[in-house]
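Hi team,

Filling in the usual template for the complex we talked about on Friday. All components are listed, including any nucleic acid strands or ligand strings, so the model treats them as one assembly.

SUBMITTER: L.P.
PURPOSE: interface mapping
COMPONENTS: two
RESIDUES: 662
SEQUENCES:
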Amino acid sequence: MHSTGISIWFFIGVLLTIYGALILGYGIYELSSGTMAVANYHASVWWGGLLLLVGVFYGARFRPGRNE
Amino acid sequence: MIVSSMNLLGARLSPEMLAFAAPSLAHLSPLDLAVISIYFAMVIWIGFYLKSKANTSEEFFMAGREMTAWIAGLSFVSANLGSLELMGWAGSAYQYGILAAHWYWVGAIPAMLFLGMVMMPFYYVCKTHSVPGYLKLRYGQGSSTVAAVSFAFMTVLMSGVNMFAMAEVMKIVLGWDLNFSIIVSSLAVAAYVALGGLRSAIFNEVLQFVLIWGGALLVPILGLVETGGWNGFKARLAHNIATGATAPGDYTHMWRSMGHFADNPMGIHWTGILFGLGFAISFGYWTTDFLVVQRVLAANSLRSARLAPVIGSFFKMAVPFIVILPGLLGLVVLTNADGSLMHLVGENVVAAHPGAGLHSYNEVLPLMMVRYLGPGLLGLGITALIAGFMSGMAGNVSAFTAIFTYDIYQPHIVKHAKDEHYVLVGRIVTIVGVVISIGAAYLVMNAAGIMDYVQALFSFFISPLLGVVLLGMFWKRATRQGGFWGLLMGTLTSIGLWAWVKADPSALRFVAISPDAKDMAENMYRALWSVSTSVGVNVIVSLCTKPRPLAELAGVVYGATPLPVEEPVPFYKNEWFWTAIAVVVFLALNIYFW
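RESULT (copied from the run log):
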């Protein structure tokens, strides 16, 4: 995939980072405001955090120019 | 896409039934809308970025044959993982139980491994760009053109049918206008495929694959947490059945009720599952449908091309976790506003009781998403559904473009043009393919019932093609005439059997060998008769006609093709090692859920 310049994994990393940040941010807001729905077990916090971690890892690992 | 949709969704998501759906299930917050909008921005960015990487025909149609095994493998399995598939099979699991997982395991894994280990060397070594391209090398232009025209025609038609069905889903789940869904998603697909070609389609399929897992995986996890794990779920289900709250049946075993057609709610028999689904349908789809094979042909080496379906098989085996399990969990966790257990019903029941607040089986996945996913996460789940649809459409369109340009336009219309000419044709055909798909979507919208016919039509060509390709690849004696007549007679057999049952439903007892057989059994046995006819006719005609000289078959037939020797690699990078692991996991799953 080097000939394409930017790896698909970088695009995925960017997207997951943005999604993770948005969802984690909302989850923290929910927690602090006490509006958390019972059924979702604080999922926004830990799932958003997980997406953010995976996204940052892939974004950094496959950032353009890293292997050149 | 087709393995499931032709069998199930055609009957489940028919237009006239969907039109009676209740008001939208979910309401999106600004955060959800932001998540969806960011996805659209990302796919367009990828398309524009990859435009400069799609200048030659090899780059545009075959992604430069530069895909790694992982990218090709994820794309391979993702092209099949549409949103209708997710929703349809989740609904099927709610209705029939874990039997629905047959379409993911025995209906996919053996065929995927066979493609990688046995067939891929021949596809890859002859450097064909398509399955009709292989037929041309093996049997000549006649068989190739028949396969190319039927595939091209049906691919854009299927794309349109799926587009319409997806727009209906968006209408049901979100209340979105049909025209809005069709136009916006089509424009996005047309833009990124026309700009970046197959590479762009593949990139977006991998992106979609990640989004589907990111958006849908949370539902079964939270469902299992709520029910106390798999055993807790089974205990609650058993309690519901014992108290009459849930219809009686074996929802958690796959093979025990397969002894007779009447023993299971699907009305199928183990021979139909094993030979019809496990061989005729699934081998036909996974090894000869260009939509999926094209992804593997784009691999950067023979080893990657062989590994790609093996990698895909592991993810395919895992898909029931995000599709079948949510459907099963819906049996015990979905409740009405008053706390009573919710009972989903067939589309026809929903249609017969408008305004009663009933939900259909197909709505189980969106209902589960609404139950567990809050703002942002719901947007991610909806994005996964949209992405699934768009990548499926991109798969159809990119396959159509390659087939039309390489197997129809080049051999029959403009034979010797410059490379840039064919790339330009490819870009134009991409747009034309999307426009025809939109036309097909509106055709379906205005001619209720046509969806069933279109999906049946697609199934007519897949199984006979399998017979022709298999004999061509493994029997040197098969001749040009044998291939052509095998393909034709196999297709006519399939059409004839379908028309027979359509005209006289009682004929099902002959086609599927039992008066207790139901629709799905018919599909399986029809495919089996079709591939048998295709092989039989091919053998008889080949034996009566002059064989091709062995020298002409080099590169396309087993025994006449010196396969390249691959460099030794550590065992953990060897495709045979991972194939063995996949076989063990596959057997273990079937035994555990026996």
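MY TAKE: Chain B has one domain: 2-592. Residues 178-216 of chain B form the longest helix (39 residues).

Thanks, L.
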